[in-house]
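Exercise 7. Given the encoded structure of a 329-residue chain, write a plausible sequence.
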């Protein structure tokens, strides 16, 4: 009779290889700001603020157009707005990039959203609807109406918009009351140069407006078509300061400005504006880009998030980034 040890003198190796379909290309290294935007979009959506969630998801997609979680969250927000066609398109794109649905909170959440978008887009066609044949690509391009061109902010009739639209950092006194002295303007320009090293484009201006500067700051950023890396700090009569950037929540901006004003209550308007900019810049700093791997030794593609090896009885299991193998001895 052959004992347990004797049985191992004639090992039988059985290998099972299972390709992990769906991991390829879906797990991408994202920069810290993109991840922060996606995380915030999820938080806003879960809090019932689907409109704000959609805005954050769109900012993330500007930085990373193939981010499946950003596409998914924008699709969920579009669903809440009953924009079913757009929601279905984003959900399909997200699933196409990551068939394993890693981006979703749960598979059930995705399935419910997908069913609602699909059912409502099918209803829009109506029963027995005849599908119109698609036009050739060349005809589609010819038939598509041209998108209206945005006015060039550098040619704006608004002098503040025109000044802020200039390339790079801007420091300007447009109050008409000489709120900034020449040495103060130089100090503000030095602060702007310091933030430029962190890839933040600082725009600082004083204006005549004596009322609430906060909505004016947002209007000017949008009218001047400033990018996501731009930060506008406005100053006005009475030492008022407000700021706006598209990538920081208004409540956070308001708190940072209030802190700067309280800490430097007796300082000049220029110093208050500089300190407000420094406080807000903490939320805008972009991490340095990772060095590119030498072409001679490219890094192995990291497609999945785990690597596992364990032994149970006489069977060894091993999971590599692309393969799961089972060996029985």
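Solution.
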């Amino acid at each position: 009779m052959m004992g347990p040890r004797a049985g191992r003198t004639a090992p039988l190796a059985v290998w099972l290889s299972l390709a992990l379909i769906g991991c390829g290309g879906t797990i991408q290294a994202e920069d810290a700001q993109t991840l922060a935007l996606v995380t915030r979009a999820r938080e806003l959506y879960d809090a019932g603020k689907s409109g704000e969630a959609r805005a954050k998801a769109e900012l993330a997609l500007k930085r990373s157009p193939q981010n499946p979680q950003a596409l998914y969250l924008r699709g969920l927000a579009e669903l809440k707005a009953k924009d079913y066609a757009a929601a279905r398109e984003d959900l399909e794109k997200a699933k196409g990039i990551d068939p394993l649905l890693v981006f979703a909170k749960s598979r059930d959440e995705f399935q419910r959203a997908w069913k609602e978008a699909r059912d409502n887009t099918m209803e829009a066609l109506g029963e027995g609807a005849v599908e119109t044949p698609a036009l050739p690509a060349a005809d589609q391009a010819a038939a598509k109406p041209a998108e209206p061109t945005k006015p060039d902010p550098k040619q704006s009739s608004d002098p503040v918009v025109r000044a802020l639209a200039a390339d790079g950092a801007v420091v300007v006194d447009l109050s008409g009351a000489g709120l900034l002295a020449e040495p103060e303007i130089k100090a503000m320009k030095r602060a702007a140069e310091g933030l430029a090293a962190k890839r933040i484009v600082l725009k600082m201006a004083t204006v005549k407006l004596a009322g609430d500067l906060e909505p004016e700051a947002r209007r000017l950023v949008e009218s001047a078509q400033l990018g996501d890396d731009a930060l506008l700090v406005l100053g006005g009569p009475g030492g008022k300061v407000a700021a706006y950037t598209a990538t920081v929540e208004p409540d956070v901006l308001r708190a940072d400005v209030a802190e700067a004003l309280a800490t430097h209550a007796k300082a000049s308007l220029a110093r208050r504006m500089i300190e407000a900019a420094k406080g807000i810049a903490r939320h805008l700093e972009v991490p340095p880009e990772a060095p590119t791997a030498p072409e001679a030794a490219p890094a192995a593609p990291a497609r999945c998030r785990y690597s596992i090896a364990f032994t149970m009885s006489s069977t060894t299991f091993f999971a590599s980034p692309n393969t799961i193998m089972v060996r029985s001895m």
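Remark. The beta strands are 15-19, 170-173, 201-206, 230-236, 240-244, 308-312, 315-319, 323-328. Students should compare their own answers with the one above.
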